[in-house]
Amino acid sequence: MQKESREKLGLLLGLVGVICFSLTLPSTSVAVEYFGTTVVGLGRTVVAAILVTVVLIVRKEKLPNSRQFKSLLIVAFGAVLGFPILTSWAMESLPVSHGAVVLALLPLATAGFAFFRAGEIPSLKFWLASIIGSSAVIAYAFHLGFGGLQLADLALLAAVVILGLSYAEGGKLAEEIGSWQVIAWAVIIGAPFFVIPVGMSVSTEMLHAPPQAWISFLYLAIVSQFLAYVAWYSGMAMGGIARVSQIQYLQPFLMIMFATAFLGESISLFTIGAAVIVVLSVIIGKNAGVSKKAALPEKS
């Protein structure tokens, strides 16, 4: 495949991945109403693990070593445990458009952790962009919370920090074991610990949940927890990380659009304005200069 065609395909796959991720909060909002936080937040991993296991066996993927396993634990803590359970809990009380504005900080959080993991020092421009973006999110949350932050807002902010660390760790590890393999092994690692709490939370009443609830849950398990990562990581590998990652700026606006189209949420100009400010601060922050830490002199 020619370089130009490969890059175009990479951009297309990256767009597919972002669209899939953008449907995660709307799907969570629907599923959690009928299945609860534990089943939606952790149960999706148990289902995804079955699919992932089949793929890993068919492809005869090599087992990660002990050092890689430690990094995978961090990825699993963020992408498999922390983010799903925190967003599932938050979506019980917050509209999707609200969550979209808060999660718009994710690329900036990822960049920040990536800087530190690579031994780099973010510039003043990065920190100013971070402060502006964070302030816009907090002001937005205060406005909708009538003068105070809700616990659900704090859960979403924690989800951003945890997933940012997970993405940074996963991106570093992907250079060794492959891109989508990172989330695949993370799902395998996390699933066994979730079987008991999910099993205890399952009830016969869930069998009577409407079709849209089951479709939403299966979407979260099969697409959001695995296939979306395959498209996203494959796109960055083919089209270039820096170029394809820019598509992620569309995600909060896609979330808002899907919330309007599928959930009937009314979107205010204040919400759109807050999202624009946050996304602009993320763009500025991700493009800010970075300097390397000075190497320590070797001892004679």
Identify the notable features of this structure and list them briefly.
single chain; 300 residues; mainly alpha; 12 helices; globular; transmembrane helix
SSE diagram, text form:
Layout (H helix, E strand, L loop, with lengths): L2 H20 L1 H36 L6 H25 L5 H8 L2 H12 L2 E3 L1 H21 L6 H27 L1 H23 L9 H29 L1 H5 L5 H13 L5 H18 L3 E3 L8
Antiparallel strand pairs: 1-2
Total E-strand runs: 2
What is the domain tally? 1
The tally of helices reads 12
Going across the biggest sheet, name each strand in turn: 1-2
InterPro entries: AA-Vitamin_Transporters, EamA_dom, EmrE-like
GO cellular component, one term: membrane
Pfam families: EamA
Keywords: Membrane, Transmembrane, Transmembrane helix
Short description:
With 300 residues, the chain is mainly α. It has 12 helices and 2 strands, in the order H-H-H-H-H-E-H-H-H-H-H-H-H-E.
